[in-house]
Amino acid sequence: MSRPDSAMPTTFAARLADRVTHAGTPLCVGIDPRWDMLPEALRTADAGAGFFAEQAADIGTFCRELIDAVAPLVGVVKPQSAFFEQWGPAGMVELARVVEHARAAGLFVILDVKRGDIGSTAAAYAEGLLGADSPWGADAITVNPYLGGDSLDPFVEVATQRDAGVFVLVKTSNPGGGQFQDLSTAAPDSGGRERAASRLNGLLLYERVAAHVEELAATTAGGEAYGAVGAVVGATYPQQLTELRQAMPHAWLLVPGLGSQGGAAEDVKAAFDTSGLGAIINSSRAINFAYRREPYLSRYGEARWQEAVAAATEDTIEELKEGVGSLFRSGRQLH
Amino acid sequence: MSRPDSAMPTTFAARLADRVTHAGTPLCVGIDPRWDMLPEALRTADAGAGFFAEQAADIGTFCRELIDAVAPLVGVVKPQSAFFEQWGPAGMVELARVVEHARAAGLFVILDVKRGDIGSTAAAYAEGLLGADSPWGADAITVNPYLGGDSLDPFVEVATQRDAGVFVLVKTSNPGGGQFQDLSTAAPDSGGRERAASRLNGLLLYERVAAHVEELAATTAGGEAYGAVGAVVGATYPQQLTELRQAMPHAWLLVPGLGSQGGAAEDVKAAFDTSGLGAIINSSRAINFAYRREPYLSRYGEARWQEAVAAATEDTIEELKEGVGSLFRSGRQLH
Description:
Two copies of one chain form a homodimer. In chain A, α2 packs parallel to α4 (about 90-105), α2 (about 50-70) crosses α12 (about 305-325) and α5 (about 120-130) runs parallel beside α6. The first copy, chain A, is of the alpha/beta class. Chain A starts with 11 loop residues before the first helix and ends in an 11-residue tail after the last helix. Chain A has helices at about 10-25, 50-70, 80-85, 90-105, 120-130, 150-160, 180, 205-220, 240-245, 285-290, 295-300, 305-325, and strands spanning about 25-30, 75-80, 110-115, 140-145, 165-170, 185, 230-235, 255, 280-285. Chain A has one domain (about 20-325): TIM Barrel. In chain A, strands 1-2-3-4-5-7-8-9 form an eight-stranded parallel beta barrel, surrounded by eight helices. Chain A contains twelve helices and nine strands. In chain A, α5 (about 120-130) links the parallel β3 (about 110-115) and β4. The interface between A and B is large, with 66 and 66 residues.
């Protein structure tokens, strides 16, 4: 596999820290294209079923222009696979081009796929999705823990081999996320055999998943601060964010839910370590479609939608600086 | 959307029952292509990275010929998305062609994607994946419940609109599936407010997910025996299969793990209702690559791999008949 210069950081955690530090902001711009929300000038396809390929081409154009607008401002982007899969194979062709475009612009790419499967199937996902020489080329992906630790292992193994990363869903930002994640759990009594696991009894399900993630993160850290395994923790649960930062000291946190989902900048302060690292904060819709809302609509209108995107990104970066405090006060940091 | 003749069943559950009854077997053939396991004659691409498009074309050919071999014998197939995503966008182009080929052969197609996401993202997955007029055209998909009931609702809504189906992961067939799924759960005490939910306290996580699935299945059944929501329950846990059949009387069960994963035909009997319906039993690798193992290797060799596939399928159908008993004793049933 191709390697960067020896002076460049190589592991997932070091590369991610490098991008965040270089950009001077932990903001990650989510890429959630929706064809019917694109600026009129970009909607060249006919509406309706039967024009999937043309609609996919439109969202591809939008995404690449979006990346061009935010690449000077942030270090990380997160394309959401669903909004590409929605257009069928043509959408997936565009997704690969979008990842390539983002990487060429120097961005760290987290592919938000929330995959999860067993054994060799998980290995196929991992092989396919992770690493610069894979056909998708993601720096990291999101995965779902419901199938248990052995379903995560193939992802962790491939990620470690390729200096890529895996973010495991721990506590999600949706209102109903707690239905299963917030349940109190205990290992069923099996005649004493599993008593060794009893230290985890009473933990909520997401806390137990967090304990597993920390184990994987610490194991893959190899003496460094952070490992190849991170965690997704919603910005809509600030109290849990504090607890989970402490519970997973070796895990980068990916924190979605800022902006449209109701999370506020001051709520995410707890996600960071004392160096201002260890967390990236995602905003998708509020930035992607900034031109559709005030004050950006009046200021830029639809025609200058890329300027609206850049302005909303800059405003979010400022909000994060205020909310997070001194960590990123000095603005863009250079090496 | 295009509608079948008025004499044809339209809902997901009725269509699935029709295919199973017509085929006279509940066997579902999983489609898990692995390029390096293809018969030599089909591996026309060079090995290694950089030939993803050519390798994808090879697996597409294999899958279509596999479908041709099994279409006269079974009613349902289940392509596994990971083995197509592995080859990048070119693999996804092949996946769509494989789904189309299977539907054209009269097969019911369950796309095994195990997706799961929140709100409008889940809706994008559902819109994209489900229904004859979607760009993928699946009759049903598999989904992951970790994100909670509100993450499942968009899938259920779209499935109901389009007479498609959703199989929710409940109890998976992998050895480590129990790490989270088998935990005993209780709603945390929140000052009495959630006491109404206490009837579920003490249930294992997968039992709680099953209770939610049954609620969705019953709601979408509209007075019929089965609803638009089913459950994935591994064949490797025969005792749980009995309990889960009882716990989810309105849910079709998709039972993977037969064959390579160690599940035996007699273990799955409990998955069926008294009419011999309500469950489909999946086998993937043992059928896909039958030519690589005895007795098929000696009998057919690599060159006649399609005959090996057909023979392994017929043998599995017979094993299921013996294991399941009288339900399918009479062989292929005609209308």
